[in-house]
Amino acid sequence: MSSITKSKSHVSSLMSAINPLANPRGAKKQCELCQNPAYLQCSKCRVTFYCDTEHQQADWVGIHEKVCQLLIPIRTATLFHSLQADRDHHCAQILHRQEELIEISRAVAQKKLFEGKYQESLPAAQLSLRCAMDVYGSSAVQLVPAYLLLAEANVGLGSLAQAEEYLSQAEWTVMKTPECSQTVRHQLHRNLGRLYTATENLEGALLHFANDVYYASEEYGLDNIVTCGGYFLMANVFIKQEKMDIASSLYTEVASTWHSHLTKLLETHTQGSMTLEHSFDEAQQAEADQMLRAMLKVQESSPKQAAAQNALVAHSLAMLWFLGGSPDKALEFGRKALQSSQLVSDHSLTEPIQSLLQLAAEKGPHPTNAS
């Protein structure tokens, strides 16, 4: 049975276990996703409610499976504590769990966005926004990352008016917060650039991506994997304008930055000072995979194929997947990198690619003896 079929089967079993909700008089429950009156509840946590099984299933796949038990202490009424110290301790615990929930839902939404799962990302982004409002208030700058996630999802879904609304909220919040960080500013301009790209305002998009790169470089430096995300998006705009030389130059910058970063991580791992599990979080891996695969696809379809550039990107993908704990994919991209590297006169990549292939082969699945 495939993993997708298993997942659907598990959600279906959860749906069949959900009981109709009998609301106490005066207590109105709202759907987790649409805030309409709720008639169902999650049978596992019993503190999350839905208008129908469709929204329950969407929330389970989007985020609820990961945070179901974490929601119980946050949403369950607690006994009154007579001592102030006990009340303070309880409030501090709830605040810590809410902050944890914000980070988990934000990371899940970001990973799904990088994977192109725009609809699936919405429940996690919505939860992140609601939790941020509970903790920081309705007009705090801490809400901006959630607004940006929702905007990016809606751009991906083609709901540009809704995306523009979220971006207007984010932009207004940033404008009235002079002390807003460079990180938030670069994220805002990156998402504005995505919206302008989607509406074919390509010059406006390039301006926002330039601002994105500026603020990101102020925070992280020019040769950083965060900053090069702006270069990648600019390159995609130049491709739309059929300015392939500029796009290729930017792709080279992105590929070199990621290759250098991954090479350092791999060296740290092989020296034994970092385990594979701590190399990347899931969102970072999804972002890198999405960018590098897109560049490799464009380069391989170009009439002016550059074997050296293909080798660099494929080698980066091989290192990424090896560090992400997938030796089979590392072998796949490593072989592709080796093939390209052998087509160029400069064989400086050949040895590191061969070494990686050997590491990946050693980490791959081995046959086991039957007991």
UniProtKB/TrEMBL annotation:
Phylogenetic lineage: Eukaryota, Metazoa, Chordata, Craniata, Vertebrata
Organism expressing this protein natively: Coregonus suidteri
SUPFAM superfamilies linked to this entry: HIT/MYND zinc finger-like, TPR-like
Name of the protein: MYND-type domain-containing protein
Domain of life: Eukaryota
InterPro entries: TPR-like_helical_dom_sf, Zinc_finger_MYND_domain, Znf_MYND
Domain MYND-type span(s) in chain numbering: 31-68
GO terms for MF: zinc ion binding
Keyword Nucleotidyltransferase among UniProt keywords: no
Keyword Ribosomal protein among UniProt keywords: no
Keywords on record: Metal-binding, Zinc, Zinc-finger
